[in-house]
Specification:
305 residues; mainly alpha; MetI-like fold; 13 helices
């Protein structure tokens, strides 16, 4: 069965489009390298930046290894706490990817659920959900995330804010991105609900939830996957922006945005590597994922075939 699946995949139009798109192949390779490095950071990182016993303040602010004052133990130099920049970037990308993927999944589940309900039920339920979506669309996603993060921090006890900051950040980014899923799924559901197979399911007495889950949902997931791929890059950038503004992950468990914020304080003193290298990693990660999303959108669009 696995062989048959691989054979069908290798002969599919999407795989053909992927093989003949240098941009997609390069983007996939870059994204795969960064993701594998982040996932297996404890195995591939030269040091553990979270192990305080291994940190030495005498090694702080060391330049990259090719600099005359560099140290061979730290290829990309160290930050203000003596942490190896390469290791910190790998661990930071791990947190950035975790926040990005979790927030996208949260947005996807919430948006798809509300879109299915809105498109299938219609009437007042559709009006209420879409008016809420219209109001949220009038504000930038970063402002929604900042508002949610601020409210959550105001409600949480001060001693629990750092330990719960990751979950608050995931919720804040996720709640700011559900609208595009809901609007896309609503439009597709309104088309699908009038087709013959849905009418036949109603005639045999099938309830709305099984109809949505078994019949309509599989037929509206194509555009959702494209949106999710592009939204992942946006979520990673949003997390970096919030962390750069100081309302994201605490410095003790830095993401890429936190590393850039820490390095920004030393940028004009000549310690450029503390900010530049995490910035390059963030750009490569977001750009590769975004280009993959653009390719997937074109590959799944029959009008561009």
């Amino acid at each position: 069965m696995a062989t048959t699946l691989l054979s069908r995949l290798s002969n599919s139009d999407i795989f053909y489009s992927f093989r003949h798109s240098p941009t997609a192949m390069i983007s996939a390779a870059v994204a795969l390298i960064l993701c594998l490095g982040a996932v297996f950071a404890p195995l591939v990182a030269p040091h553990n930046p979270f192990d305080l016993a291994t940190l030495d303040l005498l090694d702080a602010n060391l330049p990259p290894v090719w600099n005359a004052e560099g140290d061979a133990r730290y290829w990309l130099g160290t930050d203000d706490q003596g942490r190896d920049m390469l290791s910190a970037i790998l661990y930071g990308a791990r947190i950035s990817l975790l926040v990005g993927v979790a927030s996208v999944l949260f947005s996807l589940v919430l948006g798809v659920s509300l879109g299915l309900i809105s498109g299938y039920a219609g009437g007042r339920i559709d009006s209420v959900i879409m008016r809420i979506a219209d109001v949220q669309l009038s504000f930038p996603a970063i402002l929604i995330a900042l508002l949610v993060d601020g409210i959550a921090r105001g409600l949480l006890p001060r001693d629990a804010q750092d330990s719960l900051s990751l979950y608050v950040l995931i919720f804040a980014i996720g709640i700011s991105g559900w609208v595009q899923y809901a609007r896309t799924v609503r439009g597709a559901t309104m088309v699908e609900r009038n087709k013959e197979y849905v009418q036949a399911a109603r005639l045999i007495g099938m309830r709305p939830f099984p109809i949505l889950r078994r019949h309509i949902l599989p037929n509206v997931m194509g555009p959702v996957l494209v949106i999710a791929t592009i939204h992942l890059a946006v979520a990673i950038i949003t997390e970096a922006t919030l962390s750069f503004l100081g309302v994201g992950i605490p410095p003790t468990t830095p993401s890429l945005g936190t590393l850039i914020r820490i390095g920004n304080s030393y940028l004009f003193s000549g310690d450029w590597w503390i900010s530049i290298f995490p910035g390059i990693a963030l750009v490569l990660l977001a750009l590769s994922v975004n280009l993959l999303g653009d390719w997937l959108r074109d590959a799944l669009n029959p009008r561009l075939g």
